[in-house]
């Protein structure tokens, strides 16, 4: 049966679907162009380097880069004194800009959990090996730029 405009039921269905189909395709194209979800993470510069104390690699030192504003980045040196800053658990790096740097070797003692729910073994803390000018009253300042940054620290005991 023909409508008043001379179109059959099939013609009306196809013609009314065309604008909807175009809208769906347009939305799909826009989503593809903007990406799926995007990233809220800021641009970071990757930062790694070597920490030495009196010319020898400093193992197990905790390093924190604190920008003038924003989230800090942290690392712990390996047995050879090397470190790579982490911004989050998933992302390496630090915010570009000026940072005050804090390096410490002190750790607190803690009870390590044992298997089976028993009381764990006590692990002694470590006393600070570094002068306050590297941690509590840090005089260390560094600039992080976009891209790769190698920042070494040659610390002295005095």
From TrEMBL:
SUPFAM superfamilies, per the entry: Carboxypeptidase regulatory domain-like
InterPro entries named in the record: CarboxyPept-like_regulatory, Ig-like_fold
The name this protein goes by in its record: Carboxypeptidase regulatory-like domain-containing protein
Lineage summary: Bacteria, Pseudomonadati, Planctomycetota, Planctomycetia, Planctomycetales
